[in-house]
Design goal:
There is one protein chain. With 89 residues, the protein is α+β, with helices and mostly antiparallel strands. It has a single domain (3-81), classed as 2-Layer Sandwich (GMP Synthetase, Chain A, domain 3), CATH 3.30.300. It is 15% helix and 31% strand. The protein contains one helix and six strands, in the order ββαββββ. The protein has a four-stranded mixed β-sheet with strand order 3-4-6-5, covered by helices on one side. It has a two-stranded antiparallel sheet with strand order 1-2. A hairpin with a 2-residue loop joins strand 5 and strand 6 (75-81). The protein is globular and about 35 Å long. The termini are far apart. 15% of the residues are buried. Mean pLDDT is 82; it is low at 1-7 and 9-14.
């Protein structure tokens, strides 16, 4: 295991092939949801590169929320704008 340490909790990249992307999202969900403007987080296909899986962060604004990293544990973070939020079915 190789560990790189930087300034934020998301920038600590742990190279560990036994973790799934879903597990990584679950570990960081609470911290991501505390960021202003974030209304949801999940795993999905990248809107910019449809053949690549990424962490999807749903926001209500077109600007990237302050404090949201570009990657978490080496996985890209992409923004999805939801002006009206989510509706329960």
């Amino acid at each position: 295991m190789r560990i790189l340490r930087r300034k934020t909790i998301w920038e600590v990249a742990v190279i560990n092939t036994s973790k799934t992307l879903k597990q990584i999202v679950e570990e960081h969900r609470d911290a991501i949801m505390k960021i202003r403007g974030v209304i949801g987080v999940g795993v999905g296909l990248s809107p910019s590169e449809p053949d690549r899986r990424c962490i999807l962060v749903y926001t209500t604004t077109s600007d990237r929320p302050s404090g949201l990293p570009d990657a978490i544990e080496g996985h890209p973070v992409e923004i999805v704008i939801r002006k009206k939020g989510f509706h329960a079915l």
